[in-house]
What does this fold into?
Amino acid sequence: MKLRDFILRRVILAIPVVFGVMTMTWFLSYIIGNPVAMYINTNTPASAIPAIRRAHGFDEPLYVQYFLYLTGLFQGDWGVSTSTAFRPVTDIILLKFPATIELSMVAMIFAIAVGIPLGILSATRKDQKIDHITRVFALAGVSMPIFWFALMLKHVLYFQLAIAGLPHLPGGERYTLVRYLNFEYTTGFLLIDSLFFYGDFTLFVDALLHLAMPGFCLGYLTIAIITRMMRSSMLEVLREDYITLARSKGLTERVVIYRHALRNAMIPTVTVIGLAFGSLITGAVLTETIFNWPGLGKWAVRAIFSSDLAAINGFTLLVAFIFVGANLIVDLVYGVLDPRIRFG
Amino acid sequence: MSSESIQASTELTDDVAGRGTQFQISAVSQLMVSMMGFMFGGVIVLGNLVIAMGQVEAEPWLFMAAWLVPSIIILILSYILLRIGIALLDREMWAFSSSLYLNLLLALVFLTIGNAGILLAVGAIVPVVVLFFPDVKPYWYPSFHEDTVPRIKELRHALYLISKSPLVVAGILILTCFVIIALLAPFITTYGPEQRIWADSNLPPGAPSSVEGMPDHIWGTDDSGGDIYSRLIWAAQVDLKISLSVVIVALAIGTFIGAVAGYYGGKIDELVMRITDVFFAFPGLILCMAIVMALGEKSLDTISIALMVVWWPTYARLVRGQVLAEREKLYVEAARSIGASDGRILLFHIIPNTIQPLIVQSTMDVGSVLLTAAGLAFIGFGPPAGAAEWGLMIAIGQLYFSMNQWAVFFPGMAILLTALASNLVGDGLRDILDPKLRRR
It folds into this structure.
């Protein structure tokens, strides 16, 4: 199979999944409650409800409604979020998305920076004490209820230190609100905004400090996934004949591991990193709530508590799309990196 | 007993009476299970004494031991269930606060596993006995040694590897401890799962109860005066039940669908894989939440069902991949050529060869299910308020976190330990069971 055909095939295969996702959200929103509810609030007069039903096509047969829902999604009409001042869901997503992405990115970078060295360490010292310690450390990350870990971290590094009058990490928000009252985002990514658009280095540091705890929490969850994959693929690679050859040539262990083994072991790890993005966003839902992070996750949790159907629907769709996209990209990268996949 | 404590206990019975019928049915189901356990245990003990005496040429006591151990375990388990059932009927204790259907489901699971467990235990112990004592020869099975020796060697090697790996041993120990603690809950707790003394709210660990005659609060109390230590142990029952039943049901459904998809291929395969793709595209937590919402009621039943719906695609995909790899192999061809049916080939030839990744995955999922259930409770989709469930305890405790950290800390530790143990076992087993990794 040529590379072009491979890419085409993968993209075409993703289309039914996207439709499946949209069908499922439509189906669920129908079961959960009446979708008319997202256009009605307590101030809507009862006499206006039939008109609203008609205006949004809820009196049509089901298949027409399904079609209307799909066209609405494609035209950017994702409904109105009743819990967020009746603003369109797409507007809020655009507004809050950068905050979540910034947090996820920082967490991911942290996880990669810690996870890959740990995986190598663990694989090269298999079954030694350091391997056991690394594995327990990594596995504890996926075994922890992330909101519990966030709470505990916040308690120690914020409350306790603050009570003792010591320097402490900030306990929530993206920057110190009191100090930068009228801050307006340009790109929405605070780290980029503060450095390139405002040139305010203290704000940059402030933002970094605010990212530290939620980023660490979220990253710790991902470290486990990366370390585990790195370890097992490294172990597999280290058994290959070319590694034995490299060793018998008299190369130092360092060169064997970092030049020969690491490159081949990285391929499956890169895949897992791509896929871990999905779990990162689920984790962000819980972390953002604890750290009062003004991103999508906190918005979604608030929407859930006030049963704001359009917002829940929109959030679910968005995350599902991100996940399908990440899957697709990982598949494509894998296919480009490893020609064997294309012919498999 | 002072007047306050009497008041506390009347409050308690009132609340039980409110859910009286449900409790009674639940109690009866427990009693039935325990009766059946007694029956099975008794029959096995008696029957196998006879078999062991009459049919084995040498050293009958070895065979007796092999049969006796599992049956005694079953008898003990049945006794504990019986006690819980009686406690429920008398309403003297708040045994099994969880829902009826889950109880029935678990009873079923219990019975199936119990019987399969006996067979497995016998199947595993007898050959080991035979290996260590070569002069024991079952006369009704002449080629016994030739047939079992390779399997036994494999088993011994696996056991050796497990014993060599401290993490797996630690994980197994922790999990066993939790199961035993959960089963013994009626005997080791000092308070009922939903019993609360309002005067004792937000006490630190070790504080005595303000009501005279009531036991100390070893690990403190939560915001509404529930004893954290007792609730934690009661919750172990509920949580282990949820995660075990979810994993077992999802495993069964997923294995069936995945095996059929992988074996027959073609359109069925395409369809199943696209459906699992859609399921994978959603974050598990959000999908669970939507399903609980759709089912309309927040209870342990709906949460379990939602988790099962979300979890089966994992297994379906795993099994499908394995079956795809196995179905072209020579032994399958051989089985087909002697006229074995598709069902027989799948069940007896292919699935036994795909079981290892399934064991690893399902062990690790025991922890993940627990974590997802806790996450659900946190976003408001846990069991009804007041129930003893770890996730819910954290979710409610965090509202009062600034004045009472213990109500959050202990349940979190319980989840962490259980999930960590299951992950340790699963991760270690992956290394041990992987045929490529093992003989090096």
Summary: The mean pLDDT of chain B is 75.
